[in-house]
């Protein structure tokens, strides 16, 4: 069979055009894919990865070169991610950065990589150690993010937000950066509403206002933890946030199980950074507890923040500041310690435009029962009142060992009625009159009738002393406390 030459040429030309068209479509698809991938890379907000090198380790301080990042940035230091140590940038000198570790630095070697962290995703479940392989892209490279949310209620976590209570991972929480920006003082509501703490002495004589910041000044072993537990159980607040900073590890479990109890723990969040934690974690634990309290305050809830102790927080800052070369000032505390105290305390208080509140109690350890300790003196100046617990009362079996003569609430006159305020002032005057002549009475040198004021104080003292004592397992409402104070003026009657 003969084939038409012209038809064969036409068929060949058509086949070539089909092949060329197919090749053109293939190359077009490849270019489309390439441009799409390039567009995605360009639209990502990832910063270029900046790495430094560990050059020097001296005590608590790690020094790295070749890295430029901001103070507060979280970094991983190590050859492998699995063996890396978490650290935070705390200062600079020349071209080097100073970092404080958040864990054991055993095994670190000279030349280890220092890499800023990318925040980790934590939308549904938090509690497991972060995995660098699942890091998400973010513009907030290196910023500390910790879990916040209603899932923290009833839980005990460490300074990183990891559960310590063995109750499984956290649920209903989201990782958010710690907001350290201060609130505008003019947008805060003044303290005008009384707060029932469940403690007679405080309710009646040192009335606390909602949004007030007070200090519990005490030496060791005079009952400050028990007093904090009483307030945690009986205070009229929506949420209790407890920060156990720098205290003995044994006290953490005892405070939760024996002092806080099931009733107090159900509405509480406990952040624990024991004494053996690095100074960076002790400071981070205090900041985290404040952030948790702020989270609930911003939701319109009334929060009671109990932090034990402000002194350990200052000591942690002292360790860091001295390690990076800041000169010491009063009793070895660098100036930054006092600035940090004010920054931490000012985070509590009433919320913006009357939305929510944080009423805070900070314990302050008085070394050797010295009320003029520099941290105690600085705390007294920046707080809205102070409650002093004395060893003399504790040794006499007087609990809570509150010395009403040395204690004061600076907002009491704004939150109670005039009659209540005058009654409390009269109570303190009579009680103080007896304390002035106590020694004469005890040695029998006082002659009855020589001083009518002293005679009245001696007559009323048994009832007043009984009123000032309270069992740790018994709460007293604000109204009952005032009524008991009135009854204490009757000689021989126990309220």
Short description:
The protein is built from 14 helices and 21 strands.
Number of helices: 14
What is the general shape? Answer: elongated
Strand content: 15-25%
Instruction: Give the biggest sheet.
Output: 9 strands, mixed
Radius of gyration: 32 Å
Q: How many strands in all?
A: 21
Secondary structure: helix percent: 25-40%
Mean pLDDT over the full residue set:
83
Q: Terminal Cα separation, in Å?
A: 128 Å
* Helix-and-strand structural type: alpha/beta
| Unreliable runs | 120-140, 491-495
Furnish the topology, listing elements before pairings.
Layout: H1 5-43, E1 52-58, E2 61-65, E3 74-78, E4 85-93, E5 96-101, E6 113-116, E7 125-126, E8 145-148, E9 156-157, E10 170-171, E11 174-177, E12 194-195, H2 200-205, E13 208-209, E14 213-218, H3 224-234, E15 239-245, H4 249-265, E16 268-273, H5 279-298, E17 302-308, H6 310-323, H7 335-345, E18 349-350, E19 357-365, H8 374-382, E20 385-388, H9 391-395, E21 408-409, H10 412-415, H11 418-436, H12 438-442, H13 452-467, H14 478-487
Helix pairs in contact: 3-4, 5-6, 6-7, 7-8, 11-13
Task: Explain this structure.
The chain is α/β, with parallel strands linked by helices and 495 residues long. Helix content is 38%, strand content 20%. It is built from 14 helices and 21 strands. The protein has helices at residues 5-43, 200-205, 224-234, 249-265, 279-298, 310-323, 335-345, 374-382, 391-395, 412-415, 418-436, 438-442, 452-467, 478-487; strands spanning 52-58, 61-65, 74-78, 85-93, 96-101, 113-116, 125-126, 145-148, 156-157, 170-171, 174-177, 194-195, 208-209, 213-218, 239-245, 268-273, 302-308, 349-350, 357-365, 385-388, 408-409. Strands 9, 14, 15, 16, 17, 18, 19, 20 and 21 form a nine-stranded mixed beta sheet that branches. Strands 1-2-5-4-3-6 form a six-stranded antiparallel barrel. It has a two-stranded antiparallel sheet with strand order 7-10. A hairpin with a 6-residue loop joins β18 and β19.
